[in-house]
Amino acid sequence: MSVTCGCRHRNSSPCTGTTTDVPRRTFARINIRHLQHNLQRVRDVAPASRIMACVKANGYGHGLLAVARALQPLVDGLAVATLEEAQALRDAGLSGRVLLLEGVHAEDDWKTASRLGLDVAITDSVQLEWLRAVALETPVQCWLKLDTGMHRLGVMPGELAGILETLHETAGATANVTLMTHFASADNENPAAATAQLARFLSCSEALALPLSSANSAAILSLPDSHLDWVRPGYMLYGGSPFAHVSAADCGLLPVMDFHSQVISVRDVAAGERVGYGGRWTATRPTRIATVAAGYGDGYPRHAPDGTPVLVSGKAAPLAGTVSMDMLTVDVTDLEHCRPGDPVILWGEGLPVDTIAHAAQTIGYELLAAMPARTPREISH
Ligand SMILES: *Cc1c(COP(=O)(O)O)cnc(C)c1O
Asked: Is the N or C terminus of the chain more exposed, i.e. has fewer CB atoms within 10 Å?
């Protein structure tokens, strides 16, 4: 078979791409049962809301089609950021509701969205002008986004009444419009900000009798009043915590991605020797260094500092030295019998991606979304 998509599907239905049988021992195992568990968490926490599951950015790096296929039968819709992502879902035969979160970026995009049968967010009045200028065979279900304080996308509260009136007179839009907004505070550090945005959203929509949607993962878990008609979970579905100071486990979530690699070399270095590019790490004692077959070219963050935990044969050992493109080095002096071939977990079960992200001064969202195509996804059901 030939390579076209970079994912290996050992136990799953075939994907649109095919795969070689060349073994790769650095890979991301995608645990579909954990994805289903996390979805059930959303249902338990927000039982009265419909679920629009976010699968943008290649399913937060897990593989768009694998997660979309697993989620679609269990949710009310899938949300993507780009028309390409929506097209990929349709090409794969997924026919349920798909919401284009950012809306269209040009007049012609409305034709594509209509042909694909998408739900489309209107996030700027220019998109409505384009919709009025274009002739569509099938009208589109629109989600009108209100800017309640994030100031990135959405129409301003003062424009809402006029835009809704125009939208109702627009042939290219169906009559059933959903009103949405998005919270700026990605965690619960500043609950007052999200509460204020929610209050603004509710007061603007009070007299309108439209379905409402506001909650992302953080709001689903921490702001029950925000659940409304539709929740829009993303990160929590993949088993990450949207909060800086609450672990995913404490949120009742299970990691969907286990990032696997293996030790490919072990060596002794004397005290005073330096390890890796730039000699960032210096041995302060006679040290055993294990070299692992994964680097930033495989999705491990180059900014991870010395001491970041790596699981070698299930035991935590500290990263030692700058991460290379294809390799990283770990101080395994305190582990017994470390040998080439030993299994390594870079994040996942037993080592939350949030821990690695925190060490590398980023968020788990970025690490997952940045997982490159080179790292095969192994789907496990
Ligand atoms: C990505 C996204 C979400 C999901 O956010 P999470 O924090 O990953 O749950 C919800 N709504 C919109 C508009 C988004 O772009």
From this structure: N
